[in-house]
């Protein structure tokens, strides 16, 4: 009888200790600072690792809060119903801690050894490290700094696309503005269209805003954010190449295109 009692007591004690250690680990996650673009250090490493664990961040885990981290965080906030501001405050960090895991020792060991690695959940860690990264050769030891623009697009490209989004969709919900930006990017990637932002936007008859001159209105920050969200992978249009307003469209041809969805006043199609 006493042996059974002690077995049960030992099992309960193990459970309690496990719960305490789990809670402590969760409490110790991150420091109290609001992590924002331009930040560097351990909090950013954890932020990037957790975002990568659940598939939002695909860049290098380097402790530098650049554009890639910023837009990955915004996408996480959108998907989890949080305020979309690109800031990792308490609410966002708490949600991220519950949604992901962070093996601090593994991540820090990989960074300290200069290994090229990833940290995706559900993948064997032994298969995510490929040894030394060539990027470390010839390093000057200077402190890293956050980049100012996403790779692949110039500031002029981003500005022009923001002009187009503002001219075409400033009265639409934010998701609809991102969708318009995504259509521009989808056309750039399509062999059926020009392969530059300017080529797509100024293709004859492509956009109403170009025809009526609204392309030259000064875009607001919301339009610029929509472009950046699209560049960083958010495509609410579901890969559409066209869109139109059914209340004002005069082209019979556009109605023949396979329709995907409607966002705000625009129908997106292929």
Automatic annotation (TrEMBL):
GO molecular function, one term: hydrolase activity
Classification via Pfam families: Hydrolase_2, PG_binding_1
Residues annotated as signal peptide: 1-24
Presence of keyword Cell wall biogenesis/degradation: yes
Every Cell wall hydrolase SleB domain range: 171-269
Region of interest (Disordered), ranges: 118-151
Polar residues bias spans: 123-139
Organism: Rossellomorea marisflavi
Limits of the Peptidoglycan binding-like domain: 40-96
Single biological process term from Gene Ontology: cell wall organization
Superkingdom of this protein's organism: Bacteria
Protein family: Belongs to the SleB family.
SUPFAM superfamilies noted in UniProt: PGBD-like (SSF47090)
Protein name as it appears in the record: Spore cortex-lytic enzyme
Keywords in alphabetical order: Cell wall biogenesis/degradation, Germination, Hydrolase, Signal, Sporulation
